[in-house]
Amino acid sequence: MKKRTILLLLIVLAAASGLYAGGQTENPEPASKIDKPLFTFIDGKGNESVFYHEIERIVVVNSGLSALLAALQQSDKIVGRDMFSSFPSSLRTKKVVGKSSAYPNLELILGSKPDVVMADAMFDDSVAEKLAALGIPVLIESTSNPLKTKELVTRYGDLLDCEERAAEICAWLDEADSRIAGLIETARVNGENAPVVFFENRKNYKSTSKKSSTHQYLELSGGVNIAADEKVSSPTLSPEFIVEKNPNVIIRRVSGDLTADTMAGVRDNILNRPGLSATQAVSTERVFVIKADLFMTIRYPSALFYHASWFYPETFRNEDPEEFNKELINFMFGDGEFEKTNEAFAYP
Question: Is the model's pLDDT at 246 over the cut of 70?
């Protein structure tokens, strides 16, 4: 970003010197109208966008990206969001310009006069083309890959001229990763075996293979995914297949702002589902529910911590995943933010 600042100064000085070299020119352009590129940015899809001035107005239609912007302390630049981007609390008053990346409202986006639109791969191609034709770049990112999160944080810290805050976030994530990995290693040294896990992704019997980034959450938290070798990224598993694999743990990922009572109902459904009654996970009641938001960008350590605590209960008996999640939220979004939330993140 220092290079960008230097480039901007050079362009402004060059423009200013043109006004006085050889005398005043006719109808000189004001220094603010610089038609030379200030910087370029390559998004997660590999697309290059050119920017002619600093970014001051952002429309973001992905809850992971909006949370990242808030963590980078850039919420004031958000002029439009998707309906799911209501966390942290600083986003709740922002104008909604679409249901999600898949359902953006072009009229509302244009009415927000953004310098840039940030979205995920579900963003409507036809809307992206219309925005690009009007000179509004659309940046596409993957927001649920824990192995690429720190690189994403660094890139957006550079894009938005907040590298120092981005470095602080990456350092916190590094420390969290090391803490979780250390606890898992301790568990294995102490003889706790890696559990076999059935991960149910939002719908009954829908799971995730190693072709999906969701699999990485199970691997990084020390679990053995029964669907890892399936041929598609989101396979639907039969009850017979699950019983044959006989998982020690079942995790259900859910979307939306659920209460603990609602999550308890989801868990009860699994515990009472006839097709799963023969599994060890059900017989020992090692069935857990977790909110999908914890898998998004800078919140991923909370998902890993919850998972690992369920996988290695003896080693984690003195660890509190809710307290860890509270620490993460207050560090990323400001002291007291956790207390402003009125939702359950995991159950039980």
Answer: yes
pLDDT band at 35 (very low <50, low <70, confident <90, very high): low
Q: Are both 242 and 187 inside the same structural domain?
A: yes
Decide which of 25 and 45 is more confident. 45
Q: What's the order of all strands across the beta sheet hosting 78-82?
A: 96-98, 78-82, 58-60, 116-119, 138-140
**Average of per-residue pLDDT across 117-137:** 96
Give residue-wise pLDDT tens across range 200-216: 999 999 999 999 999 99
Provide the residue range defining the domain that includes 84. Answer: 37-143+153-163
Pair (223, 288) in one structural domain: yes
- For position 123, which CATH number holds? 3.40.50.1980
**177-214 CB burial, b ≥16 within 10 A, e <16:** bebbeebbeebeeeebebbbbbbbbeeebebbbbbbbb
Query: Which residues, 6+ apart, have CB-to-CB distance to 185 below 8 Å?
Result: none
Would 168 be classed as within a structural domain?
A: no
Q: Could you tell me the maximum CA-CA distance found in the chain, to the nearest angstrom?
A: 89
Pairing mode, strands 48-51 and 39-42 = antiparallel
Q: Are residues 202 and 306 located together in one domain of the fold?
A: yes
Q: Are residues 58 and 120 in the same domain?
A: yes
Measured distance CA(225)–CA(199) in Å, rounded: 7
**27 and 50 belong to one structural domain:** no
Please tell me whether residues 205 and 250 are part of one structural domain. Answer: yes
Give the strands of the sheet with 196-201, arranged side by side. 224-225, 196-201, 249-254, 287-291, 346-347
